[in-house]
Amino acid sequence: SRAWGLPPIALTIVLHVAVLAWFAALLARAGRWIDDARLRPRREQLLVVAGIGVLGAALARLHGLEAGLWAGAYLLVGAIDSPADAMLYSIDSITTRGASGITLAPLWVLLGALEAANGMLLFGISTAFLAVLLSDVRLWFQRRAARDRCVDD
Question: What is Dmax (Cα atoms) for the chain?
Fold first, then answer.
C-alpha cells in the first residue's frame, strides 16, 4: 500500500506547483496592468483585495481537486467502495482533520496517513505562496505611496 501513495503525492505536488506558477504569472500581469492603468489608490486597493479573494477561492478549489484525485485512488484500489465516502474521507485526510468516521480497508490504512502528510505539504506550499504574495503586495503599496509622495512634492 505504501507504493500506491507515492504517485498521488507526486501528482498533487506537481499539479499544485504548476498551478501556483500559473497564478504567479497571472498576478504579475495583473500588477503590470494596474501600474499602467494609473488608478486611484482606493480603486487599486479594492482590486488587490478582490484579486486575493479570487486567489483564495481558486486555492480552495485546487485543494478540492487534489482531494478528488486521492478519492479516485481510494476507489481504484478498492480501499473505499462509495465515491461520496471516498471524497469525504479524502477531504478529511488531506486537511488532517481525521474525524469522518469512515475507515479504509485494513490493507490501505497507510494510504490515509500518506494523504495527510501530502495535505500538510500542499497547505504549506499554499501558505508560503500567500505569505510571499502578501509581502510583495505590501512592498508594492509602499513603493506606490513613495512614488505618489514624490509626484506631489
Answer: 72
